[in-house]
User: Fold this.
Amino acid sequence: MVLQTPPLEPVESIIPLADEDLTRKDYASDVDTRWCPGCGDYSILAQMQRGLSNLNVAPEKMVFVSGIGCSSRFPYYMNTYGMHSIHGRAPTIASGLKLSRPDLMVFVITGDGDALSIGGNHLLHVLRRNVDVKIFLFNNRIYGLTKGQYSPTSELGKVTKSSPVGTTERPLNPLSVALASEATFVARSFDTDPQHLTATIERAARHHGAAFVEILQNCNIFNDRAFADYTDRNVRDERLLYLEHGQPMLFGENKNKGLAVSATGLRVVDAGGPDAGLILTHDATRPAPDVHQLLARCAYPEMPVPMGVIRQVTTPTYGDYLDSQIEVQKFKNRHDVTQLLRGRSTWQVE
Amino acid sequence: MTTTSTQANGSGNTSAPIQERDRVTVRFAGDSGDGMQLAGNRFADATAVFGNDFSTLPDFPAEIRAPAGSLAGVSSFQISFSKHQIFTPGDEPDTLVAMNPAALKSHLSALTKGGLLVVNEDAFTSGNLKKANYPSNPLSDGSLDGFRIIKAPITTAAVAAVDDLGLSNQNAERTKNFFALGLVYWLYDRDLQPTLDWIEDRFGRLPNIAEANRRALFAGHAYGETTEIADAHVRVPPAVLNPGEYRTITGNQALVLGLITAAHLTDLELFYGSYPITPASDVLVELAALREFGVRTFQAEDEISAVGTAIGAAYGGALGVTGTSGPGIALKSEAINLAVMTELPLIVLDVQRSGPSTGMPTKTEQTDLLQVMFGRNGESPLCVLAAKSPGDCFYMVLEAVRLAYQFVTPVVLLSDTYLANTAEPWPVPDLSQLSPIDVPYRRLVNTSPEDYQPYERDPDTLARMFVPPGQPGLQHRIGGLEKSDISGDVAYSPENHQRMTDLRAEKIQRIANFIPEVEIDGPESGDLLVLSWGSTYGAVFTAVNDAREAGHEVAHAHLQYLNPFPRNLGDVVSRYKKVLVPEANTGQLRMLVRANFLVDAKGYNEVTGQPLSARLLTEAIKQLADE
Assistant:
């Protein structure tokens, strides 16, 4: 499956390529995976390895940085460099790494608790700064590693171990958070559509700038079938909207429905009906995140759930600005350490 | 330049008799909007050019602008200058310049008995007196008897001097600090030229303001010259310092220069992740202006991000540094622990300030020693250093970087508010005489995958084989989970955890084999050893010498290496009957010394937010020596 996308930079200008052709296995480390049997993380790991081998990224030029949680074990299973860091802080480590080593490709693996609860602050700032790191948020709407407490994406009223009579707080929408930070790349995919997930990973990897990908991931132990209402194979066509840049926003069996603007947001219209002409064409490159934000708010059951690249805009990264400042200042000013040590004025003691 | 000014310019061209003195301490005090820090810094500059040794002590409120005239808004700047080498900014000023009643109220108690008081009588209005809680005017109620007083109409005279320049009232009044400065220049026989040059440099684009400041300066100087001021014209002859080229430096400036120099000596890119915090912000601000040296400063969203980015940079093979103060260290602790576990060369600067909590952000203290030693979960040893003077901050940064790379460990360097802001003359280092700093990972460039184990260690230093990402075939994963010895894989076995805990501790202990022994100033053994660390060096050195002059036999040892201690320290402290540990905390080094060496060390402790008083410490030393 190839997603329709905005014009892309040549792959070699974005990605450090390996000298020889690599396969999926070249990206797998020899460490035994230790997720629960049936966990959605296995599929994400497999698609990550597949996507990177499709792009043929040089493994030694890749660093996976993670925080804490089930998803954050991810780096151990990749035959790349990696750091399994501390809870919520992966974006900070990734930022320092990428800014001092622009030659590396830096990925952040995080979860809903790691990214949106303890690490919420860092997520906002890494996205608004547009540091060139790729962030994959595995959203399972539960705390798995600590055995079943509610997370910042758990639904209001959800019964969990730490909310025996239901939560009393409303969830965050990860895509809305990313768009509010004016992230330059925002996408969503899910664990049980390998083709779509692989393609989305490749798209994120080829973005120059901060990329944010929410991956709906099933936790079959503590929050089983959290997304099944719309991701099960037999309902996908009806309940998911696969977005493609430049294509009309159509969904449903035989693409018989579409999205149009209403007075209060988006509405579903009949693709064969009188309002068919009002169906929106998806523009991921639209600078203002307004329509993107409306898409992000589309939720089951009222609306189809959007999947794919919601937003991709090109703008200089933090590193681009920083590196060019250094270049310009080096050109404009002396940079002689001896002179710096002497300061503005000195005097001689005989 | 006007005709009068030419006459006033140049030192000692007056017929008034000049007394000679060895050392003088002057304190400028005024409202935080009165420009006292500026006046003090100009005085320091002129003093440097004149050739005295000197030391300064700025002291300002945390509020940017407290209400004008209030006690909370008083800002001061003290400078001590001498014909001899000096090590402190002086305990008690000989001269106090008080720009308003609040300044007088706040600082009079510090003035030496019989000291000289210069007051701006224009500011002693009933409103200002009330703000300073004076029931009556101290200039007329006799309460200042016992001091020599110069009552100068500083505001009106300054305004008169700039009368025809067409300045607003506010701008005209603002020149009063230059008037006061001119007057004090006359009192202490300073040359006006360095300040005139500075005015030209700073205000050259605003010729009217530059001229106003020049005129106020000359007017103040002329005021001193023409007013009958008995016994106040004093000259402190130049000090005999080691020959060479000197500049003035503050501790924070020295940290900045140290980092740039360390990047040069290691040939690494400097990355500085920081979040603005008093008193460390200057380091971020000054480094941000040095992009031409390839410096990557990163103003993070919080303290945690600041250290996180520095860890990321260090992991990537750059010189990764974060700087903060005590509250920031508290927030960074978890991440610093990650650097302990992953064994990365992270540099942490801690410019300590008064705590606990927000405490007194602009006041000094040595209260983070135990925090940086022990304020992390688990057994978490790291290297701790402390600078002893503003200029020493430079050399201790180089040491911190040397040890961080040699041992592949986080290193914390302690400075404090006092060192950060105090200025002193500093011999400019000769870059070619500084040793290069080795970066061991460069030697691993051609390591083959079969020979590479991330946690294999150097047999001498126990440093692990750290390799930044990018090398083909050496891909590996590190993290905060316990590591298996040698392979670095995740490990939970009891034996391995014991072994790794021991290895991490032993690695830090072995640093002692690569740092200098502690030196003893005074008798090699005997009755009393005074053991100090960090910024108290100057005060303790001075107090020990004063006690010796009073006939006591006292030894002094000063620590710049706090973890590990120098290898001879246990032996040294056991050679004296009494050990006194003076600190600006309640006894943190003393606790470590007692715990490590079973020595009944006594403390001398001040937690006032001010540098230790050499005079009070001298008394404490004498008292303990007599016991």
Remarks:
- Chain B has 21 helices and 23 strands.
- The mean pLDDT of chain B is 94.
- Residues 247-433 of chain B form a domain with the Rossmann fold fold (CATH 3.40.50.970).
